[in-house]
Structures are given as structure tokens and as C-alpha cells.
Amino acid sequence: MRRKSGDKEKRIADAAIRVFGRDGYHGAKITRIAEEAGVATGSVYLYFRNKQSILQYLFAKLWKELHVGFAYVAQQADLDPRTKVELIIDGILDQFEKNPSLALLFVNEQTQLLRDGTGEFMQYYVDFLQLGERVVRDGIRKGVFRPDVDPRIFTNLVFGATRQLLHQWARAPRQFPLDTVRREIKAVFFGGLLIPLSSTAPRA
Amino acid sequence: MRRKSGDKEKRIADAAIRVFGRDGYHGAKITRIAEEAGVATGSVYLYFRNKQSILQYLFAKLWKELHVGFAYVAQQADLDPRTKVELIIDGILDQFEKNPSLALLFVNEQTQLLRDGTGEFMQYYVDFLQLGERVVRDGIRKGVFRPDVDPRIFTNLVFGATRQLLHQWARAPRQFPLDTVRREIKAVFFGGLLIPLSSTAPRA
DNA sequence: GTTAAAAATGAATCGCGGTTCAAATGTACT
DNA sequence: AGTACATTTGAACCGCGATTCATTTTTAAC
């Protein structure tokens, strides 16, 4: 007999992140992924059913990790809503901080999977959005957030804004330091753009 | 001799918007576009060099129109910065209000063109972002906007958030009425999520 | 009514790349 | 030091769909 070398699956997955991220799902060639993984073309099919399933696997893994973090934050009863929102934003950014390719994949190829609405990751994705809604709704109930904000729309606003900046950052990390991005997202979403009319200056 | 029937180019372009929007750039088949345009397959190539150039044409047209509106708004000396930002947001939403397919195209396939960084639309795109920055910077100088907001990041935040909601709206117009979206975007970006600590309740 | 040239057609072509599979290779056990 | 069987290989296969082009249709000029 003979045992699978063990790290091949991971090597293929990592290479796929880079190639999908660089060339896009359709531009990515299986042969290239195999090459970057240091593996024969056919070997890819020992670990994944087909091209599509590689992408599905990567997204399922990614969203599962994000989801775990969110669920943990959301259920903490002693955290105030504002901190929860901050931690969720941090959670997303932390996930990509060390891996620009993953960020590009995340931002660019999600539609690829969203289109047919299938796949394991879908469940985590909708769950995440609902979780965000609940946190906002909770904040409103506790009188910390504005009552005229629509929780579902707000969640999408934050998510969309974060995606866009993640994209810019991944394309040119120098021009968009993640720490600045992090700070600005929070500042804007919490405090808004306008200087309040009648109050002492609030902090960012 | 014989003259081109004249409306074929437009019929093809319109069909392309629908098919690209529905099936995505790579899922879209030329034969299908021709069919929906009521034209033979080969005719598509009388009006466009190839598939890619159809997408380029559509984006160039779209961004040109957006850009014209923005440039007009931005140069108005008598408008206050806040109104300018509002008008820019309105400009984007107006463009898609009557055409969900165009919105899907806009949101999903931009990366397709961004990837090789070429194409006529690129020029209008970067110009638009710079224009947004200038408006924000102007607002800060006039003391209307918070000075600690980074204009470039803010522009991307608004743009990303708008894209995401446009996407949700186009997928399910019922669940996300554009008027609500419009109002919420402005409310959040101007006023933020938090209830100000020491002030009379500000308006949305 | 005839002609000439452009416009339109759509079946055939052709290359690309995802997928397969017969052959080669490595490993454990005897 | 050989056998059995799982893993690995990569060249060949095959379908799909963008693009082409020989043929047909339309129109304008005479």
C-alpha cells in the first residue's frame, strides 16, 4: 500500500487561492494551479471533484471561520452593541490582513457562487448577515443606535464598504494601510461624515 | 448598395446587458445575445470586434454618462458639499433605477475589466473617484465635514456600500426598495449609526 | 429591370482547457 | 527482493462556444 503524502490537499488549496485571486475564476487554469502546487495536473482531481468544487471548498472554509468568530461575538451578553460591531469589522479585516490573495478571491469571485445560490458557504453567508442585523437591532432597542436606521440595510452597507476597501487594499497595499482603513470605517459608520450641529466634539 | 438597418447595434447592446447581467460575462453566449437581439449570430461581429469589446463598450457608455453628471455637480460653486455628496449618490442610483440588469452588470463584471486595467472606461472611473475625493476635501476645508475623515477612503466607502446595495436590490427589488436604500445610505454616511451623546436629536 | 456592393445569415471551424485514464511509481507487508 | 495495491503522473481526449466565411438577401443607383 501507500499513503497520500498528506500536505498535497493544502498545497493545492493554497495555490488555488493565489491563482484564482490573480487570474480570476475563469482565467485560472487547472494546469497552472497544479504547477504552482508542485503537483501533476491529474492529482488535482484526486482531492477535488472539479474546478468549481475547489472554489466552493475555499469559500466554505473562509466563511466557516468568519462565522465562528461572529457567532462568538454576537452571543456575548455583556458586550455593548457598539463594541460588537467593531469586533465584527475587525474580524473580517483580520482574516485578510496576512493574505491579499484571499481578499481578492473573497471580493471578486463571490458572485460566481452566489449566481446559482448553492454551496455550503451560502448557509454561513446568510447567517452572517442575519447576525449583523440582530446586533444592530439590539443596539437600537438598547438606545445606543439611531432608531431610524434599517438593520438589514446597515449590515449591507458595512459589508459592501468593507469589501470595496479590501479590494483596493489587496490591489495596492501601500496606498491603503489596513490600520487606516480599519479606523476610518469605524469612524464613518459610527459618527458619520457631518460635524454634529450642537454638541461637544465627539471622538472618532 | 445597402444601409445598415440602424437599430441593430442598439438591439445587440441592450440584449448584451440582459444576458451579461443574467448569466455573467463568462456564462453569456454570443449566440444567446444574438438570439435575444433578434439577429443572426454572425451579425454581432459586424458591430463589435469581439465579446470583450461588447463589455468594454457597455462600461464606457455607462461611466461616461455617470461622469458627465458628476462633473456637472462637482463644479457648481454655489452648492454646499453635503448636497454635492447627495447628488452624486442620487446620480448613481438614478442610473440604475429603471434597469436592474444594468445594475447587475455594473456590480458583477467590473473586475473583469479592472483586471487588465485597460479600456476607455478606466479613465472615467478613476476620474470619478478623484472627483469624489475633491468634494469631500472641500467640505472639510469649509468646516462642514469632519477633518479626521480620509477623503479617498470615504469615497471608496460610499462607492462600495452603494454597489453592494445595488446588487441586493437588483437581485430582489421587492425586498430593497431603492427609495429606502437611497435614504438609508445618506442617513448613515452623514449622521452615522450612533446617537450623538450631547445634542438635540439630529435629523436623518 | 438589372446590376453592384454592402449587410446579414448561420453552419462549420478551430483552439482552448477541464477532465480522464492507462501507465508509472512508491510503500508496506511478507 | 517480490507482490499488491494505492497514489501519482501527464499526455490525450472531447465538448463547448467564440469566431469565421461562403452564401444569400436587401437596397440604391442607373
- Determine the most extensive contact between two protein chains: A-B, 54 and 54 residues
Question: What is the fold named in CATH at topology level of the largest domain in chain A?
Answer: Tetracycline Repressor, domain 2
What's the Cα radius of gyration of chain A?
A: 20 Å
* N- to C-terminal distance of chain A: 63 Å
Descriptive report:
Two copies of one chain form a homodimer. Helices cover 71% and strands 0% of the residues of chain A. Chain A has 204 residues and is mainly alpha-helical. Chain A has two domains: 1-48, Arc Repressor Mutant, subunit A; 57-190, Tetracycline Repressor, domain 2 (Orthogonal Bundle). In chain A, helix 1 (8-27) crosses helix 6, helix 5 (81-97) runs antiparallel to helix 8 (120-141) and helix 8 (120-141) packs across helix 9 (151-171). The termini of chain A are far apart. The relative contact order of chain A is 0.10. At the A-B interface, helix 1, helix 9 and helix 10 of A face helix 1, helix 9 and helix 10 of B. The structure holds a DNA duplex (30 and 30 nucleotides).
Short description, anyone?
With 204 residues, the first copy, chain A, is mainly alpha-helical. Chain A has helices at 8-27, 30-37, 44-47, 51-75, 81-97, 100-108, 110-114, 120-141, 151-171, 178-191.
